Amino acid sequence: xxxxxxxxxxxxxxxxxxxxxxxxxxxxxxxxxxxxxxxxxxxxxxxxxxxxxxxxxxxxxxxxxxxxxxxxxxxxxxxxxxxxxxxxxxxxxx
Length: 94
Fold this sequence. Notes:
- The protein is mainly alpha-helical.
- The protein has a domain at 25-55 and 66-94.
- The protein is built from four helices and no strands.
- It is elongated.
- The relative contact order is 0.13.
């Protein structure tokens, strides 16, 4: 799935190249962590949410901390999703 999400265009300037590199590393780290903790299905859904957060941003993040903020927003979505799934499982077993 990550290969589908990778950016394959060459940037026009170095600032853009740096930003793309930060984005790719941040998304890859997020995807890998979610995949390890919750499995591939939630990792793919979380990566899609990460991309939605990027699309919703007014500007491209310009620093590592701004990319991490974007990841935190996607992580918040993931936490809500995991909470709902655990409640659903809990009610199904009682």
